[in-house]
Specification:
Order of helices and strands: EEEEEEEEH
Number of strands: 8
Largest sheet: 8 strands, antiparallel
Helix content: under 10%
Strand content: over 45%
Number of helices: 1
Distance between the termini: 50 Å
Structural class: mainly beta
Length: 155
């Protein structure tokens, strides 16, 4: 509801599990982030969320992905939300990826920032850069394209 938002921090940890193949996964995670505005609003939040993620090019080192899901913002009052976004991931190795993303979070109330104003419920954007660590073996179908039999990257 306020103008002049300021950029602040966002930290997230997430667990993902592939479903039905290398293109689709489900992730559950927790985030800590700060929303602030010039001299008016400054507050920290914790959120939990679950997303379905569609990996568009699962056999390539650089792939776009889209995601969406729901969650909750936890503070003195629990606020439910939906989120969706898109990003890119570049696999530096079969076990390590670099991600960039953007996401919109839409709440179902207009008081997240302490001000009820306007026609719409509160929403906010998050943009970030992250690192993905892949534990265990890659999904079987993706493994055949990403790795050769000796466990090294295909070129």
């Amino acid at each position: 509801d306020y103008s002049n938002p300021k950029v602040s921090y966002n930290g997230k940890i997430q667990y993902k599990q592939f479903l039905f193949g290398p293109n689709l996964n489900i992730g559950v995670g927790a985030s800590m982030f700060k929303l602030q505005n010039e001299n008016i609003f400054n507050d920290e939040f914790i959120s939990i969320d679950a997303n379905l993620e569609l990996i568009l090019l699962p056999h390539d080192n650089l792939t776009p992905y889209i995601f969406g899901g729901g969650g909750a913002i936890l503070d003195s009052d629990t606020r439910f939300k939906v989120q969706y976004g898109l990003g890119f991931e570049y696999l530096l190795s079969p076990k390590l990826g670099l991600r960039v993303f953007g996401e919109q979070n839409i709440t179902f109330k207009d008081d997240l920032d302490g001000l009820v104003n306007g026609k719409r419920d509160d929403y906010f954007w998050r943009f970030g850069v992250g690192i993905s660590f892949y534990l265990g073996k890659p999904y079987k179908k993706a493994q055949s394209k990403i790795l050769n039999k000796k466990g090294t990257k295909n070129e």
